Amino acid sequence: MIKVFSPKLSFRDILSVFRALIKNEISGTSNKVQEFEERLASSFNRKYSVVCSNGSVALDIAFQLMNLKKDDEVILPSFTIISCLSAIVRTGATPVFCDVDSKTWNMQIQDVKNVYTNNTKAVLMVHTYGLTADVKEIKKFCKEKKIKIIEDTAEAHGQYFDNIQCGSVGDVSTLSFYANKHVTTGEGGAILTNNFEIYKKAKQMINLDFKNSKRFFHNNLYWNYRLGGLQSALGLSQLNNLNKVILSKIKQGKRYTYLFNKYDVDVDLPITSTDYSFNHFWVYGIVFKDNVNRDYVAKKLNDAGIETRPFFYPLHLQPSAKIFKQKNKNLVNSERLGTQGLYLPLGKHVRPWQQKKIVLQVKKIIQGN
User: Fold this and answer.
1) Which domain holds residue 159?
2) String of b and e for 47-76 (b: at least 16 CB within 10 Å)?
3) Are strands 160-161 and 148-152 parallel, antiparallel or unpaired?
4) Count: domains in the chain
5) Of 216, 240, 264, which closes a domain?
6) What is the distance between the alpha carbons of residues 167 and 247, in angstroms, rounded to a whole number?
7) How far apart are the first and last CA of the chain?
8) Do 162 and 305 have their domain in common?
9) Whether residue 184 is found in the same domain as residue 267
């Protein structure tokens, strides 16, 4: 089976974790955690960073920090992962789904404007699958309307919009370090901000509201979302390798595109760049024509020893989201991507000859041969 993803750790990664073990740097309060937070802040052009147990927790904390109230509305793309919706709902605010661009698969300024109301208090700007959201225009619009930005940078480590680094834009930005991310700690996440008060509160929220002055005196019922020292040691090593990982994925993504074009496979391919960013190919996704059954293709590929993943299913069509009235029912791009999109094996474990095999197998299946 050619896995859709398979993590590969370097000798330096292993050595970094081993050194932390030797020094007993294993807990969530070890020096390695602080070092990782400082490196993250520097790497993502931020003043402060707080690491936590995973990316979903990072989103959850980010929204809790926004002081949202009932009837406040938060705009988010329908084409994204369910944790984005869950984090909003847990604040008591109302999620409002917008569509995404058919080519970049990310939210554009017009998508935001289509669902904006006087009740809009925040926008969740997500960078998806290797390209970015419309950073400059969305940031400008939010500043004019005095709307908060929460920026989900889980899939955009090292990505830029022109000269603006992803992760440096939101009032609060979040990261995920799951095993398939460009920087991984196995599980893990982070909150990034330039606001000291937000930073200080986030530190309390991930650590049971502990304070140095009164250790076991708690004003709030916060939870334990700490990241450990061993994971932080791995993250520190991974940060050193970020650019190499990105270049490798870009090379693989371009090879897929070359092969699909060479063998004239009738699918919609991801664009390699826009006017403002280059595709980092966090994943390599293809979108089938409407007359092709995506799930059938995925099953046949699996039977041939090729693992795939369907694209995110639109949030506005999720059974768990039925209670939210949809302001904009014209979310055609999110719906098409959710039903016709599939991403293919990508990473160090995939060889060039395997990429060719995958492309030819896709062509064979959709042609019915």
Assistant:
1) 11-240
2) ebbbbbbbbbbbbbbbbbbbebeeebbbbb
3) unpaired
4) 2
5) 240
6) 19
7) 21
8) no
9) no
Task: Identify the residue whose tokens are 């059938």.
Answer: 296
84 three-state secondary structure: helix
- The answer to whether residue 21 sits within a structural domain is yes
Segment among 125-134, 202-211, 233-242, 262-271 with least mean pLDDT:
202-211
CA dihedral of 328, 56, 156, 192, whole degrees rounded to 10: 110
Residues 116 and 96 in one domain: yes
Asked if 77 contacts 199 with a C-beta cutoff of 8 angstroms, the reply is: no
Crossing angle (nearest 10°) for helices 352-366 and 242-262: 40
Residue pLDDT, tens place only, 172-183: 999 999 999 999
Tens digits of residue pLDDT in 147-156: 999 999 999 9
List all residues 6 or more positions away from 212 whose beta carbon is below 8 Å from its beta carbon: none
Q: DSSP secondary structure string, 131-193? A: B---HHHHHHHHHHHT-EEEEE-TT-TT-EETTEETTSSSSEEEEE-BTTSSS--BS-EEEEE
Distance CA 126, CA 216 (A): 37
- Stated pTM of the model: 0.95
Q: How far apart are CA 322 and CA 288, in angstroms?
A: 27
- Are 130 and 280 within 8 A, CB to CB? yes
Percentage of residues in the chain with pLDDT exceeding 70? Answer: 99
CA distance 362 to 346: 15
